[in-house]
Amino acid sequence: MKLLDGKSIAEAMLSRLEADIRILGFRPGLGVVLAGDDAASHLYVSLKERAADRIGIRVEKRFFLDMTPQTEIEAAIAAFNADENIHGILVQLPLPAHLSTDEVIARIRPDKDADGFHPENEARLSRGEEYLPPVFPQAIVELIRASGEMLHGKRGVVVGNSYRFGDVMCRMLEREGVRAVHIPCVECNSSQGLDALKQANIVVSACGKERTIVGTMLLPGAIVIDGGIVKDGMRVVGDVDRASVEELEGWLSPVPGGVGPVTIARLLENVVEVAKRQKARRG
Fold first, then answer.
1. Does residue 274 belong to any structural domain of this protein?
2. Would you say the pTM of this structure is higher than 0.90?
3. Which residues form the catalytic set?
4. Where are the alpha helices (DSSP H) in 109-229?
């Protein structure tokens, strides 16, 4: 399979955003809320901050201890909502178990929702209105487009345990002209799941389980987007068994170096988009 190089795609996006920020004439602001001591979350925030700083986005962070009351988290979001110099707000997930993710995300102003998770932005997506796209699904779409393949009329399968993600991902694929269905990870090896995969021109997997997808499941020439992350000792691998698909025709986004870098670039693109809208309103 030919590889879809997420690093190169992200680099091109970041260069374009850097030019857009120069034209804006001011530094957009990203407010970040991080609660708890999850090592991966702190790493992800540092990667996003590094990319933001490189292209001219100012980052303000609010760190909270693991058992911080939800009211304090929501107060930090309210302050970012009211700050005209903050154009995007990111709540790094996962949150500690005692916090309600849905309630916290709902406190973000929809027009500052950098990750695109707010329910109002999801509703706007379904209505075909202007919205801030959810960055992980949008990054997947960017990788699929990078294949250069004609997408209209193709079949797609989204493999994942989150029905919310599956629904949003299918709707975003349908906007590209792809007829998409969602199947849970555990149904991949069922007769129905295997039949769907064998007919799919586009396969998106987000299970976080090694060898969820192997070569014998795939249609020759398929575009396969590996959105899973699995830590195996010092290695980081994805849902797709690389060895079993390498000799097949088609496209594969690798792990690492596939969806991750593009997701960060898409997050920053949302921040710049909000800054552009603010400037347009002010004239």
1. no
2. yes
3. 48, 92, 115
4. 119-127, 135-146, 163-175, 191-198
